[in-house]
Design a protein that fits this description.
By secondary structure, chain A is α/β, with parallel strands linked by helices. Helices cover about 40% and strands about 20% of the residues of chain A. In chain B, α2 packs across α8, α3 (about 35-45) packs across α5 and α7 runs antiparallel to α8. The chains are: A alpha/beta (about 130), B alpha+beta (about 525).
Chain lengths: ~130, ~525
């Protein structure tokens, strides 16, 4: 597949947060094949704990609804460390994500489940090019 | 001109000579005045009814003194207009104190005979006695005249006052009742024994659209009740008219207005028997509950939808998560097969089918959410031409693939409505897509998107020359009704909801070869 970043450029680092472990592992696998470095957290607390360490991810991809710590909390924590961090929220509640994320600047990208893999990869490539430049 | 007194003197033949004769008697009569007055009032004291007129001895003594003055005046010899005026006053006072007229005669007879005796005793001649007698007659006549005048004036004034009072009371009562009937927020219709309308209040005019003049004399049941309810509710009114008491004097029925619209009215019947045939015997009072009904119904629907919406939102999340997993696994499978070089055409097709089915489920979830939990309208001025054009552009590719030609028929003058442009766009997209899909099976055709300005509304029509709806009465706007093999059955339900949320209407006309959806939305300046 050719959705990945151009060869020779550093691989963008993605933190993928979702409590659906099976699907996330598969998604991480495909993204790695397409030229991304992917770290995975299966809940909000684990994601925050990862975000306290360096290096920070280049992009945060998170689910909205998760037990205890939700995607908005993870996003807020990440933005407290890295104010311009690109965020993609993948959710079955797009309206809620748009509503809750409305105060976040820059606005998170909201994708509705079920996501098309090609569309997600395209979005990530677009965002990652922005970082590298 | 001759005055009344002059006329009376002439009639009694009492002249200047008579006056002189009388005046001459004063000298020898005057010493008797006090005695005559005393005897006069003694008489009165003897008579209970006459005595009852006076308030006490004090008053009688005063009256005795005034009688002496009267005698003195009687014999003074000047009988002019002012004399007449004073005598008239005496008659008036008698009215005031309530002394019946006949006492005047007996009193005068007493005075006449007393004075006559004195005149005779003092050698008075027949002419003198006669002159005095006529003078006393004259005095009596004038007193009676005063009495009569004053009494009739008093009676007249009294009855006038009573009349005025009565008129005022009547007017007040009438005003109260008319106001109560006219200002009441209920229909009040009065029927005579034949069931003809005799009373028709303002609210009745407002609700029915008829004016009272044209309703007076019309049969209530045939004119105002909807045909369907005449056998039941009409009978009820007829029975009440006959004086039968009803088990349920309050009932809901349907009224037909002048414009032919039907209104729900809660009626109450009140029977009031009357003697005259054209008198109101049955009061039919009603309250228009149509709007209240509609509001209740809407509130119930909203409540139901809100509950469904909450459920739908929760369910959507639960469905979208596994769909997401399925979708990603299909993508993975597709890639893995490709990499391994093991993909057969059948395998690829199977993957496409699973992918499409997932998308369809995802669409169903999204559409169901749109229907059950719509986002509030974001109302802005919307230019209809631009809206139509955008929808056509968005659908151009799909139309071309189905070999369907979409034609725009839009007015030259800018047409502006107030609405939510993205929702209205969804309406046009859904309608156009339906048109395109209806034609796709038959190998293509034409869809026309037309917009027109009408006095209060913008009319937007989507017309196709496809096979038409299978049945004219198909409930196409109901949720989950679909004529398409892979339709969700929500497209037109959403369209209907969006249009009605804009206070608009949507109708459809369909026959083989032409199906036309017509949407109206109030103009921007409404």
């Amino acid at each position: 597949m050719d959705q990945g970043p151009a060869p020779g450029l550093p691989r963008p680092r993605i933190l993928l947060v979702d409590d659906d472990t099976r699907t996330s592992r598969l998604l991480a696998h495909m993204l790695r094949e397409d030229g991304f470095d992917v770290e995975f957290a299966s809940n909000g607390a684990a994601a925050i704990s990862r975000l306290t360490r360096t290096p920070m991810p280049d992009i945060l991809v998170t689910d909205l609804h998760m037990p205890d710590v939700d995607g908005i909390a993870v996003t807020q924590f990440a933005r407290s460390k890295e104010p311009l961090l690109p965020v993609v929220i993948v959710t079955g509640h797009p309206n809620m994500a748009i509503g809750l994320g409305a105060t976040l600047i820059p606005l998170p990208v909201v994708l509705t489940k079920p996501i098309e893999y090609a569309k997600l990869a395209e979005e990530l490539r677009r965002v990652s090019v922005g970082i590298v430049l | 001109m001759e005055t009344r007194f002059q006329e009376m003197k002439r009639y009694a033949r009492f002249g200047q000579d008579d006056a002189k004769l009388v005046a001459r008697t004063k000298a020898y009569c005057a010493p008797h005045f006090t005695r005559i007055a005393q005897e006069f009032y003694d008489r009165i004291r003897e008579h209970e009814d006459a005595h009852a007129v006076f308030t006490g001895e004090e008053q009688i003594l005063r009256l005795q003194r005034s009688l002496v003055r009267w005698l003195d005046r009687l014999l003074a010899g000047t009988y002019d207009e002012s004399y007449f005026g004073e005598t008239i006053q005496i008659g008036r006072v008698h009215v005031k104190v309530g002394l019946p007229q006949h006492y005047m005669f007996t009193a005068m007879t007493l005075i006449r005979s007393e004075l006559d005796r004195i005149i005779v005793a003092n050698g008075g001649d027949a002419a003198t006695r006669d002159a005095l007698s006529r003078l006393i007659d004259l005095e009596l006549g004038v007193m009676i005249e005063g009495y009569r005048e004053h009494l009739s004036a008093r009676i007249h004034a009294k009855s006038e006052h009573a009349n005025q009072e009565l008129t005022r009371t009547l007017a007040r009562t009438e005003h109260r009742y008319i106001s109560a009937v006219e200002l009441a927020g209920v229909l009040i219709i009065g029927l005579d024994t034949t069931g003809a309308i005799r009373l028709f209040n303002r609210e009745a005019e407002r609700v029915t659209g008829y004016e009272r003049d044209e309703m007076t004399g019309q049969p209530f049941i045939a004119t105002l009740m909807a045909e369907d309810v005449v056998p039941t509710d009409g009978t009820r009114v007829a029975r009440a008219l006959a004086g039968e008491s009803l088990d349920t004097p309050v009932f809901e029925s349907v009224l037909r207005t002048r414009a032919g619209n039907l209104r729900d009215v809660r009626w109450q019947l009140a029977y009031a028997p009357a003697d005259e045939e054209d008198e109101v015997v049955l009061f039919v009072m009603g309250q228009d509950v149509t709007d209240a009904r509609a509001v209740e119904e809407l509130a119930r629907q909203h409540e139901k939808l809100a509950a469904v919406g909450t459920l739908a939102a929760g369910l959507a999340h639960e469905i979208r998560n596994p769909l997401n997993g399925a979708q990603l696994h299909v993508s993975f499978l597709e890639r893995a097969l490709k990499k391994a070089g093991a993909a057969t055409p059948e395998m690829n097709e199977a993957i496409v089918v699973v992918g499409e089915e997932i998308k369809r489920l995802a669409l169903l979830v999204s559409e169901f959410l749109d229907f059950a939990r719509p986002k509030p309208l974001k109302v802005d001025p919307v230019v209809v031409q631009a809206l139509c054009h955008r929808a056509v552009v968005l659908l151009a590719e799909q139309a071309a693939a189905a070999r369907v030609q979409i034609t725009e028929d839009l007015p030259a003058q800018e047409l502006v409505i107030h609405g939510d442009s993205s929702k209205l766009e969804q309406v046009l997209l859904n309608l156009l897509q339906n048109g395109v899909e209806a034609l796709a099976g038959g190998g293509g055709g034409h869809v026309v998107l037309r917009a027109r300005r009408q006095p209060r509304v913008a009319v937007i029509e989507v017309e196709d020359d496809g096979p038409g709806l299978p049945r004219a009465d198909a409930p196409i706007f109901d949720a989950f009704f679909s004529t398409k093999a892979n339709g969700t059955g929500l497209g037109l339900a959403i369209v209907h909801r969006i249009v009605t949320d804009h206070n608009g209407t949507i109708t459809v006309e369909s026959r083989p070869g032409r199906t036309r959806f017509r949407v109206t939305v109030p103009l921007g300046n409404q």
